[in-house]
Amino acid sequence: MSDTRRRVKVYTLNEDRQWDDRGTGHVSSKGISLLVRAESDGSLLLESKISPNTAYQKQQDTLIVWSEAENYDLALSFQEKAGCDEIWEKICQVQGKDPALEITQDPIDESEEERIEEMPETSHLVELPACELSRLEEIADLVTSVLSSPIRREKLALALMSEGYIKKLLGLFQVCEDLDNREGLHHLYEIVRGVLFLNKAALFEVMFSDDCIMDVVGCLEYDPALVQPKRHREFLTKTAKFKEVIPITDSELRQKIHQTYRVQYIQDIILPTPSVFEENFLSTLTSFIFFNKVEIVSMLQEDEKFLTEVFAQLTDEATEDSKRRELVNFFKEFCAFSQTLQPQNRDAFFKTLANLGILPALEIVMGMDDLQVRAAATDIFSYLVEFSPSMVREFVMQEPQQTDDDVLLINVVIKQMICDSDPELGGAVQLMGLLRTLIDPENMLAPTNKTEKTEFLSFFYKYCMHVLTAPLLANTAHDKNSKATVLFCYVDNFQTAQLLALILELLTFCVEHHTYHIKTYIMNKDLLRRVLVLMNSKHTFLALCALRFMRRIIGLKDEYYNRYIIKGNLFEPVINALLDNGTRYNLLNSAIIELFEFIKVEDIKSLIAHIVDNFYKALESIEYVQTFKGLKGRYEQEKDRQSQRLNRSESDCSALYRRDARSLDEDEEMWFNDDEDDDDGETVEKNRMEDDFSDSYGKYMEAKKGILSQIASVSFLSSVPAGAANGANGANNNGKAAAIPPALPAVTPHSNTSTSSVKTAALPATPVVKVCTQYSNLAKVIFLIHLHMNSAVCQPI
């Protein structure tokens, strides 16, 4: 069997009877196995052996579904019909089946397989009783009896499809209902329920057709366990109204929408919750609904005129509120259905919505007073953010050029979060999660726009951050009579505390991920001081949020933050909260202790010194932990180290100045002798390179001796004290400073009294004397060599 590769999506059925997307890849057949490798990295998504007894179903031309083990259903959704047909032929080839069939046999256990092998061929056929009122009980018994046997379920399904039996049964239902034959209606309930549990897509196609589905619903109304029948048909035909926000002209699309709604109603409302033994019986029904939704979204997406008209009415100011509400609810359902699409189709779907203007439309409807409209718009916005945060960010960054800050989309979202009327702030929590996704740098790494992170964060802190922090700043204010910040306790109610906790959670996220921008904002607004006011809140969870904010700042170990905390004395509210908490061993106590323990363990010296200097007297009585004594110990160790370093520096300086002039002269003489010895010890080298080096070195030493002899003639290099030298120069030159050696390369310096045509720049007397008094004679020589060499490149004045 040759290998083939086709693009597929792998699905598995979860415990809630929903299909989970396991990834996209390429399927191939290898021997008697199906392999699916991920298209992203080539990893193995699926390896499934084609068992001769496994039941495979082919649905809707591009879908193959099968059960690999008990309660483990798999599906391959193909991008192309040709790929599905090819894999289906290979499966049928392994199992020896006709590819024209849409289903192969079900798995059977060993005991049943042995029994079937012993039976004659004729016993494999299921003989259906005649479809008559008198034999309804017999039919019901037959249908319920085969449910425990996979092979008999398969044979019964084939018999029901081949003889058009379903439509005959539904005809009997109308007769029984006309005659009010309750016994017959109860038998029909068992029959229809059992047929649904056969889990066959071909039967569903018949039962859920326009001609039959309402009769199927009617049969399921007559549950024998109920005293009175349910009225499901009345609900579906009269109560449930199909609303067309824009008339749908495609009859096939309209029929598919009606069918999907009714089948979903049967699964969710009419059918009882399946037992553990029946969980797998309705897997095909779930698949039927799932792929119906895929078709609906695809058909709507392809109808450009329809979507264009919907957006035109949604953004039209003349549209009535009720109509706009219906349009928003339509888009909400539309986006929910889109989650069934394969990734490439879902990408195209959301790009289509973006091009049609979904984000400007959301900006309008999210600002409306209607709570239902705002809730639906929030759900749509969440789908868009989940799909592509970059797309949303790109849109909002273009807005300041067109509108005011108050109506920016992100500010509308923030205001809706702040103004959430739900006491539990359910909507606010959802919006806060969306905001965090938008400002998360981790998803700002798109290779197409490398500056997205910098540009968006700059935009957010410039146009949006003040809106986010407004409730926090409004609930903390400066006392006019003092520099302290006090809390308006009369607004410290539970809902306000919850809102402030959400805002602090978002700000804490910013501290961790937006190092530069949030640091600048905190410093400019003195935000940490305002946050720590909330340590006084009667709601402990809010005080913990404030403490967590500070803990995250200190956790960065940024000296810029540390200096800000020290200068503002911002440990005071934290320590006051610890002392006010008393001896209670609670979460607040543990969190504060952990903060100081972190400072001690990380040895943040500036904060340790500040805490011990200012608060140790208040904290030294806390002995149930060793944290504060440890801080004191760290503080004392650092003081000792500083004292030792200071003493060592002083002793080094003293040793330097204790050296007398005689010892310095001896050292200088030794240095000169070493130079001469090095010069005298030079020998003639043999090769050419060594000769060049020797000549260069000799020239260097001659120049050095010339410089030293020139320096020796300068009057202030004598061994007399510097003050005397300065005085002598003052006497000879009428108070003028000694001259720097001339710029020309002369061997003998000009005397003070000679008249030379070369003018020299004068060096102030005091600095030279000061330098000479602080350095040894050796240092003087080095200094003047350097000075002379620099002056050699100067031009004469």
UniProtKB/TrEMBL annotation:
Residues 5-95 form the PP4R3 EVH1-like domain. Residues 138-637 form the Serine/threonine-protein phosphatase 4 regulatory subunit 3-like central domain. GO terms for molecular function: protein phosphatase activator activity. One of its GO terms (biological process) is DNA damage response. It comes from the Eukaryota. GO terms for cellular component: nucleoplasm; protein phosphatase 4 complex. Belongs to the SMEK family. Regulatory subunit of serine/threonine-protein phosphatase 4. PANTHER family: ATP SYNTHASE GAMMA-RELATED, SERINE_THREONINE-PROTEIN PHOSPHATASE 4 REGULATORY SUBUNIT 3B. This is Serine/threonine-protein phosphatase 4 regulatory subunit 3. The lineage of its organism: Eukaryota, Metazoa, Chordata, Craniata, Vertebrata.
